[in-house]
Amino acid sequence: xxxxxxxxxxxxxxxxxxxxxxxxxxxxxxxxxxxxxxxxxxxxxxxxxxxxxxxxxxxxxxxxxxxxxxxxxxxxxxxxxxxxxxxxxxxxxxxxxxxxxxxxxxxxxxxxxxxxxxxxxxxxxxxxxxxxxxxxxxxxxxxxxxxxxxxxxxxxxxxxxxxxxxxxxxxxxxxxxxxxxxxxxxxxxxxxxxxxxxxxxxxxxxxxxxxxxxxxxxxxxx
Length: 222
What we know:
The chain is an alpha/beta fold.
């Protein structure tokens, strides 16, 4: 059994993904979303406040992360995966608060595409599922927490994702969370039990860390 990383009996090293990713179509155009990185920044700040170490792998954002966090900037989903695969073995757990692009163009044009009167057809392929890939690598005592943004059948879809990705908890929110300062989430476990948390993203981050500490990090101290 591999023991958890500890510098004190209660300190953990936590990997947090944050912000969007970009998938370029040509040198100037890209697919992305409106993720601001505020949730990731709030999680990092609250984890540091509790005495944990934090590594943030972040896509392009305007938000500032706490100075005490180690920040790894990336652009694409593949870059985020590579950075996470490098950091995760040195961490106790991962919180996937980022909103990486689920698709990328099959082919990236070397030159800027010209505007055509008849429009443009893109062929897209899936990008890697970062938290699912990290869950495959979990050693004894490590944990993973996913985020799910759903616009319909949220609870059922979140539970299905939680189990398919083999995570320990999943945080369900909806489209109103994007680029917002407040949020309402449900923190769901593998039994389908959900805890509601709402308020500023700092308040929600604290509620998520409460659940992680009491339910997941306790495994490391037992």
